[in-house]
Amino acid sequence: MTHARPPETTARPLTRRAVAKGAAWVTPVLMTGAIAPAVSASAQPGLQGWVDVGKSCNLVSTMTLTIDGTGSYPDRGLWVYNAQPSQLSSAYITFYYPTGLAPISWSANSANSNWSIPAVDASATPISGFTAYTTRYSGTWTYHATGADGPYSTADGQPSFSGRVSGAGTYCRNGVDLYARRTVSVGGTPVMLLRGPVTI
User: Fold this and answer.
1) Which stretches does DSSP call E strand in the chain?
2) Cα–Cα distance for residue pair 176/98, rounded to 1 Å
3) Residues forming beta bridges with residue 81, ordered by sequence position
4) Residues 96/196, Cβ–Cβ less than 8 Å
5) 82-119: b or e for each residue (b if 16 or more CB lie within 10 Å)?
6) What is the rounded distance in angstroms from the CA atom of residue 98 to the CA atom of residue 166?
7) 3-state secondary structure of 101
8) Each residue's pLDDT tens digit in the chain (200 positions)?
9) How many Cβ atoms are within 10 Å of 67's Cβ, its own excluded?
10) Which of 4, 57, 118, 184 could link 200 by a cystine bridge, Cβ 3.0 to 4.6 Å?
């Protein structure tokens, strides 16, 4: 099985902890648009998380894709720095897989908690040559007063999915590129982070 994490796309320098871990999915992004009223300019919300993506292959006919965000902070999951749970809503992750793989038949693994099964999302910001699959979070958040970069709130549920593709031997041999876009609303203002492409 192959696992990969997308390269960095970040709005501020990496912390030493992130560099030491090589944690490409654990860096912050600054809020897009205006800062939520409850948050000061010196403590902007930072969206972070770590989700493993991978694949296993039957080179003749079948490929299985995996999305695994299970575990604990700061190694897995989704969290927002400098934000209270009451400020957070509309959390989702959109994964972009090559259109040539469609359709991908997704199912939730037993470890999945409060994340919807990824579904084709025609409303997602397009990336040429890729199909968007969005999973949405409906669970609760927990506030932590101290973290690597300050106080933070974690999503209590974590995503875990498997996707089955048939007739995909060529992609298994040559690798599969993908992107992931995380979005969480903080006080009604979206915080976003796009990472990729990564090849698995």
Assistant:
1) 2-4, 46-50, 52-58, 62-68, 77-81, 88-98, 105-108, 119-120, 130-136, 141-144, 152-155, 160-166, 177-186, 189-199
2) 7
3) 46, 152
4) yes
5) bbeeebbeebbbbbbbbeebeebebebeeebbebbebe
6) 14
7) helix
8) 555 544 433 333 333 333 223 223 333 333 333 333 344 445 789 999 889 999 988 767 788 999 999 998 988 999 999 999 999 999 999 999 999 887 899 999 999 999 999 999 999 999 999 999 999 999 999 999 998 888 999 999 999 999 999 776 667 777 899 999 999 999 999 999 999 999 99
9) 25
10) 4
CA angle 129, 135, 138 (to 5 degrees): 160
**Paired tokens of 60:** 């003749």
Query: Largest Cα–Cα distance in the chain?
Result: 55
The Cα–Cα gap between 64 and 45 comes to 35
3-state secondary structure of 36: coil
The Cα 152–Cα 133 span in angstroms is 27
Number of neighbours of residue 153 by Cβ within 10 angstroms: 25
194/71 Cα distance (integer angstroms): 21
- DSSP secondary structure of 131-149: EEEEEEB-S-EEEES--TT
Cis, bond preceding 103 (omega within 30 deg of 0): yes
Q: Give the integer Cα–Cα distance in Å for 57 and 180.
A: 21
Distance CA 101, CA 103 (A): 6
